[in-house]
Design brief:
The chain contains 9 helices and 2 strands; from the N terminus they run H-H-H-E-E-H-H-H-H-H-H. By secondary structure, the chain is mainly alpha-helical. Helix 1 crosses helix 3, helix 5 runs antiparallel to helix 6 and helix 6 runs antiparallel to helix 7.
Length: 211
């Protein structure tokens, strides 16, 4: 049976996987009530798990080291309770080859080697080049769909990654190139980054130790 996450876990975890975001973004991440999210964020702040900083007219929440440790403790307990550790680890192993393809596609979206300059910026004038990148992302999305299905059978908070990726890709194909690799919108890269962070956090892993 799929396990639902507690509200306090969802709020703390939303801070982690968004990296740095203000209260409305944190609330929207898991469709939470704004007032409840605000209350839980201030509770977490009082415990030293999150901190709010502001600069240049904007602000957001981020995890402290203590908050990161607490988030990982909560996630480990949740995964044990769901009895899904083996399944999530198996999905993660299948995720890694797709991750390599995603990284290559995003690099090819940003760079298009030219004579004498293999790091030339892609000016997107070569439609065939860009079409190939979008086809690669389509393959990544097709590989993601069954993995996302397996994850959400373990924990409901994994829902939505596949549909968000598909939506971003459709927008990219319709001409919005920002939906490939921008980090300030729900792009293919942004969705993938969040999923990657979600998986390693859930399994208690470190990106720097990945194969």
């Amino acid at each position: 049976m799929t396990r639902d996450s507690s509200l306090d876990l969802l709020v703390l975890h939303a801070v982690r996987i968004t990296g740095f975001a203000d209260t409305p973004v944190i609330a929207r991440r898991y469709d939470l009530d704004a007032a409840t999210t605000t209350e839980l964020l201030h509770d977490a702040e009082a415990r030293g798990w999150v901190t709010h900083t502001s600069f240049a007219g904007s602000g957001g929440w981020s995890l402290t080291e203590a908050g990161r440790a607490e988030n990982e403790r909560q996630l480990a307990a949740e995964l044990t309770g769901a009895g899904g550790a083996d399944e999530v680890r198996d999905v993660y192993r299948a995720f890694l080859p797709l991750n390599a393809l995603l990284q290559r596609a995003c690099t090819d979206w940003q760079l298009r080697p030219a004579a004498g300059d293999r790091l030339a910026v892609n000016d997107h004038s070569d439609r065939a080049w860009d079409a190939r990148v979008l086809d690669e992302l389509t393959s990544v999305g097709q590989g993601l769909t069954p993995l996302a299905g397996r994850l959400q059978e373990v924990l409901t908070r994994f829902r939505g990654y596949d549909t968000r990726f598909t939506t971003a890709l459709a927008l990219a194909r319709s001409g919005d190139g920002s939906r490939v690799d921008r980090t300030d919108v729900d792009s293919c890269h942004r969705v993938w980054f969040e999923l990657h962070e979600d998986l390693i956090a859930t399994l208690g892993l470190n990106r720097n130790e990945e194969p």
